[in-house]
Each structure stands twice: as structure tokens, then as C-alpha cells.
Amino acid sequence: MKKRSLPTRKKNALSSFLADLENRSDFTYLNIKKEFVVHIGYYNSVTDHEQLQSKFIPYIKHLSFRSVQELHNILPAGDIHLLHDPEKIDDLMLKGYVMIYCGESPEECLLFPLPVFKSRQISIPEVEFSVVGPKEAFVESIDTNINLVRKRIPSPQLKFKELHVGDLTQTKVCVAYIEGVTNKENVNTVVQRIGDIQIDQVIDSSYIQQIISDDKNSPFPQLLDTERPDRIAAILSEGKVAIFVDNSPHVLIGPTTLVEFFSAFEDYFLNWTIASIFRLIRLFAVFFSILSTPIYVAVLTHHYEMIPKALLGTLVSSRSQVPFPPILEAIILELTIELLREAGARLPTKVGQTIGIVGGIVIGTASVEAGLTSNVLLIFVALAALASFTTPVYKMGNTIRLIRFPFLITAHVWGLLGISISICYIMAHLLRLKSLGRPFLEPIYPFRFKDLKDAFIRLPFSMAKNRPLEVRSNKPPRLNPGEGRDNK
Amino acid sequence: MRVPIQEKVSTYMVFYLITSVQVGVGILSYQSQINKHAGHDAWMSVLIAGLFIHITIWMIYVVLKGVDGDLVEVNKQVFGKVIGSVFTILYMLYLVLGATIVIRIYIEVVQVWMFPQMKVWSILFLILPLVFYIINGSFRVVVGICFLGFIVPAFLMTSFLFPLQYSNLNLVLPVFDHTFQEFLLSANEAALSFIGISVLMIYYPFIKEKEQSQKWAHFGNLTTTFIYTVLAIITFTYYNQPQLSSLKWPTLDMWKIIEMPFVARFEYAGISTWFLVILPNLTLFLWAASRMMYRQFQVSQQKSIVLFLIAVFIGCFFMETREELEKVTKVFSMFGRGILYVYIPFIFLTYCLLRKGRRK
């Protein structure tokens, strides 16, 4: 037979590889048949022990075979490989395959898949919690994550394109889209950008997010990340692209727009009137959070004439004891809030609560009583911090909080004019930003009236008959003509 | 000369391009300029000027549709290569001068009303990098700024309603109290507020459906005319004529009376926000100038913007005092009138003659 005539060099390579395996600490060798030498080898860290011991080995013991080729024909399973290349064998074993060979110096080894996945149980979403609606969140295992989406869209059109990124980690990345709905151009952009990645390790989806973003220096995230499978299902059917990364509980969405970062997914579970008002409140919170402290600084430093008479008394009485100029006062307080947030974020929940009490109540009250800050500013800063936490996407919330600082400085130097010029800078930056090559500020600019139905407000589902123009879907109407009626 | 499709902007954006370039620093002070001749009837002169601009827009479109190119192309066809390039350079200078004056007048307003001690360069250091950042993006970003520069400060329009509670309609009565000549002279002054539109001849190839954009241009001009007319009537019913003539910035003076529970002295907020109105002027003028530089001499836009921004920076220092600024502004308005009354009609007539000649 052809397989028998292997060069001895290869045979030696395999033998020395097999001998070398014994030296690896997490590798196990078993010899299972008495009358005839059958070796089983596996990495115990990635292989399913229980299955192996209780089912696989007893089953093999009862089979009668003389060589691995015979065994290959008998075993009732797919995904079995007969290999002689040590590298390939090692590769598969590291992915949880069990190696079987007969005799002391075999020509080929049989590899049987028995991998074990240690992963977290599916739990409730913690970052994007919602009171109503589904309570499942993604976990670290990509197969579980894909399963969570597949069961929501049981359609053959839902396609996954698999890629491997990272020289060292070989992380599995899946680009998901719905064929016939998603614009092929978007999928190709994503696939091409991921394919071009040159990196040794991908630990989380945020690595991919940073690398494939259109503008890597921008403080604004240009791809949305979510831990909600329901949100992924919704955006896939809108015609967007989702990027799953193995070992990451966050799935990326693109192309996105700025407005999308301020829409909580819960908006879709509430009545449209209520949801719209919540959205507007959230948008107001963004502006309030960015502008309130800078305006305070600008007005008190340069434009105190702007304060109406009635308000002046309150301000004077609260600031008369404060020895610092408004900018110093504001920066101290803003930094305190940031410190509290940072401390709270790195601590266990229970200690975090204590930090909140210490920071919010003790430091706040004490600093006002000590006359270090005015209580009017304290109210502003606390409200602004509160407002910044209403941003549903964590990464955007960070951006909102940090772009306040340049505003503070320009407000101190150039007053209100500095603030309006800073706004222009942000505007220009947002106008230049793109998400997967699509304008980031859509539907404001380019102005698309039809996409306003799900931007600042959310109109009822009956108004959303078409997919957003932004994604340039191949099939804009959400329903085929007549399709909706069949279900009646 | 082809403009790639991803560089092009939607047709209706012409509306914002027209309005944003017409509304600038002029609107802060035009009321005390136009009333020199026609007095309290001058608001009708605004209408006359608006009508005249409509005719100009029509002429521009006739020429551009025929030539299917921009101003550089038009100059080449009408004047020949050499003289055409002279006109191109002159127009380029006009644009850079325009940008310099706009920014300098705005800084003057800031100096007079907000920060008397502020140095010109200090604020230029903040504004010019922004202008570079915008123009360096692409034409779409410039148009985006024009769009947002119209939408975002639009709320300021409501602030012009506050003076109405003190207005006296008798101040604009009787109507038609001046001679036709006086009306025209005032219209001549009012026309200065509208002169930015000629930039249309440079961004024309960047519009998706060029031919269909004409209605948007007219609509944009109509909107500006409406704003200018209404604001003129509000001003004329609020001030009496002698008082108005003594004011330099009547619009800002009207803001002073606005008082809300949380804000007094509204003009501080108003002037700051007005920067959003000034910015489109600046960026569009300088973008157009750099575009012409590229078309005429193949200098990359990035390089020429840096050159122009340095020119603007130095130019602002040559207009240190109020008198110097007014002198330069006078030259600029002559320039502008020349373009409006001579240059564009001349191009139009020559083009029509050329076309007739070609047909024969």
C-alpha cells in the first residue's frame, strides 16, 4: 500500500516527537489494551477527562482492530484525522483532540476530538442592564455566543465568515451578516481590515475595535460594542455587520453612528413615546455633562455680568468663602469625581459602595464646609457626573467625561468664546470621523430625514418599514411584500 | 476635470452653502449701513438687493451649466488662458482677503464687546488650526460645517423676537417715503451682505446633480433675504433713525435687552455662538481659494491652505486699528461690487455671445 512506503525520515520525526511528548507536564499517556499495544495521548488541560474515561476508553477496548487505519474506518464519528506530520498532530491535540496510535513506532496517528470548554455560564447583562426585555448576555466562548444569536435568527441567510487573527493566539474571529440584506461592501471592508491585522495577540474584541477603527487617534469609539445577543440580532436584521471574537464577551457592531451610542437597547422594549422622551433626556444629559462646568467657569471668570440679579446673591454667598479661582475649583472637583469613579471601578462591589458614600457625602460636604469649593459648583459637578453615566455605552461615557477637560481650559482662557470654538473642534472632528467608511454623524450630516425615525426619537415600529439608509442595505424594505400578511 | 463621487455633496446642500456664506459678520451691523439713503424704508432695499442676487444666481447658473466646469474653466473660455488666469488670481486674492476681513471683524466685535484686552493673535492661534483641520478633511467636511453652522445657531433667530415687545410700528411708517434713487442706493449698500454667493462658481462641480441645484440656490437666497428683511424691520421698529445711525452693531445692541431667569446680558452668549456662523464663511472662502490654486497651478490644497492661513494671520496684523480695518473693508466691498455688477454680468454676456457665435 501507498501509506506503508513512507520515508523513514518522517517516521523518525514522528517517533522522536512522540518520545518528546512524555516530557510535557500536562500531557498524559495511557496504554489501554493488554494483548496489543494501543497508546492514547492527550493534553489533560484541554481534553474532556470524564468523557474519555467513562465512555471513550471502554468503547475502544471493546472494538477489535489491528491498526489505526482499521480503527479509522470503524469509529462512528466525523472529524477524525489520520496524520503523520508532528506539527499538525500537536496543533490538533492543543485544541483538545485525543491521539491514538498502535505499536511503539507508528507511521500514523489517529486524532479524535474530545475537547473541553471551560466557560462561564450565560448570565444577565451587567454593563447594559435593562429592566424589561431579555436577560441573556454574551460569554467568553464564541460558540456559545454564536449559538445565542443563531437561535434568535434561525435563518440560513445568517452567515458567519471565520478568520484567525494573532500570530500567537490564533484567535477565532467571526464576521456575521445576513446575506441579501447586508451590503457586501460593509462585509468586505470588515473582512479585509481584520485580514490585514498584524499583531501577535488578540485578547479581547476591543483589540480588534482599536485596530480596525477608521481613525485610531480619535477619542470617540467608532464601533459599538455590546454584550446583548438581542441587540446583535436586531442590528443584524437592520443590515449591519457584527464581529464576534473568541474569548470576548463583547461583540462589535459596525457601521455605527454617533446617535446610536446614546440609544439604550431598552428603548425598543418601551412604548415609543416613553422611549423617545428617555432618549431626548439622555441627549440633554450629554450636553449638560460636557458644558455645565465649563460654562460655570467661563461665566464666573469672564462674564459675571451675565448672572441675573436674583441669582447673583446665591452665587456670591456660596463663593465668598472660596479662596480659589473658578477654574481651580472646578478642576479639583472634577478630578475628585474621576478619582472616585476610578477607585470604584477597580474595587469589589461592596467596597465600591463604601467609596461612593465616603466620596459623595463625606468629601462633598466637608469640602463645602471647609470653604474649599462652592456648593453651587458641587451641584453642577455632581449632576454632570450623574448625567455622564446615563450614556448607555460605557466607552462613549468615558469619552464624554474626558472631553470636558479641554473645554474647561478653553473656558478659563477665552470664556464663552473658547467653549464655542471647542464645540466647533468637536463638530469638525465628528464630521471627519467615519465608521467603516460610512459617515459617523449620519443622520444629522449627511442629513437623512428618513433615518431620523430612529435617532433622537424612536418612532413606532409601524413607521420603521425600511432599514436605515445609513447601512446601504441590499434590501431596504424590512418585509417582503405580502410576507407579513401570511402570518395572520 | 472630474470630481470623484465620494467627494460630491447632496444637491440640496447648496441651500446651506448659499445661506451660510451670506449670513456672516454683515448681519450684526448692516442695519445702520443700509439706512443711510432710504431711511426707515431701507428694509425694502433689502428686498431689491435680494431680487438682484436672484438674477445674479440665474446668470451664474446659465454660464456654469453651459461650461460645465468651475470659475477657472469659465475664465479660460471667456478671457483666454493668460487674461483668464489673471482674473482667477484676482478672485483668489478676493477670497483670501474676504476670509481675513471676516475673521478680523469678528475679532473686533469680540474685542469691543467681550474682551477689550484680548490680543488678535491669541484667538487666531485657536481658530486657524481649526480652519486647517476642517479644510484638510475634504469638501464634505466643509459643507458639513456650513450645514451645522446654519442649523446649530438657528435658535438665535428666536432671540430677535425679544425686541418686538418694545417695538413701535409707527417708526417704519409711512412707507415709500423716499425716492427710487434712494432705494437703489440703499440696495447697493444692502447688496454687500449678500456677496458671498459667487463662491458657487467654484464648488459647482462638487454637487451631485448640478443642474437641479439651481432651485436650492434660489431658495437659499430667498431665505437669507427673508431673514435680512425681517431683522431690518425689527430693528427699524425698535430704534428711531437718528439713534440707529449712531450705532455700529445694532443687532448686538438689541441682544442687550434680553433677560431670562438664568441669563442676563445675552450678547455674550450670542457673540460666542456667532462663531459658528462665522466659521462656514472662513472655511468656505479659504477652501475655494485653495481649490482655485489647485486648479490653476496644480498646487496641492494642503500646501496652499497653509499658505493662505499664514496670509490671513499676517493680514490681521495689517488691520490693527479700526481705521485700517475700515479702509480695507472699503476696498473689499469695492472688489465685491465689481464682481457683482461688472464681472459676473460681463462673463454672462460674453458667454451668451460666444454661444450664439458657436451656434452660427
UniProtKB/TrEMBL annotation, chain A:
One of its GO terms (cellular component) is plasma membrane. It is found in: Cell membrane; Membrane. The keyword Iron does not apply. Keywords: Membrane, Transmembrane, Transmembrane helix. Pfam families: GerA. One of its GO terms (biological process) is spore germination. It is a multi-pass membrane protein. InterPro entries: Spore_Ger, UPF0353/GerABKA_families. The chain crosses the membrane at residues 280-302, 376-394, 406-428. The keyword DNA damage does not apply. Coiled coil: none annotated. Belongs to the GerABKA family. This is Spore germination protein GerA. It comes from Pontibacillus marinus BH030004 = DSM 16465. The lineage of its organism: Bacteria, Bacillati, Bacillota, Bacilli, Bacillales.
From TrEMBL, chain B:
Keywords: Germination, Membrane, Transmembrane, Transmembrane helix, Transport. The keyword Metal-binding does not apply. InterPro entries: Spore_GerAB. One of its GO terms (cellular component) is membrane. Gene3D superfamilies: Amino acid/polyamine transporter I (1.20.1740.10). It is found in: Membrane. It comes from Pontibacillus marinus BH030004 = DSM 16465. NCBIfam families: 2A0309 (TIGR00912). Signal peptide: none annotated. The chain crosses the membrane at residues 12-30, 42-64, 85-107, 119-135, 142-163, 183-207, 219-239, 271-293, 305-322, 334-354. Belongs to the amino acid-polyamine-organocation (APC) superfamily. Spore germination protein (SGP) (TC 2.A.3.9) family. This is Spore germination protein GerB. The keyword Transmembrane helix applies. One of its GO terms (biological process) is spore germination. It is a multi-pass membrane protein.
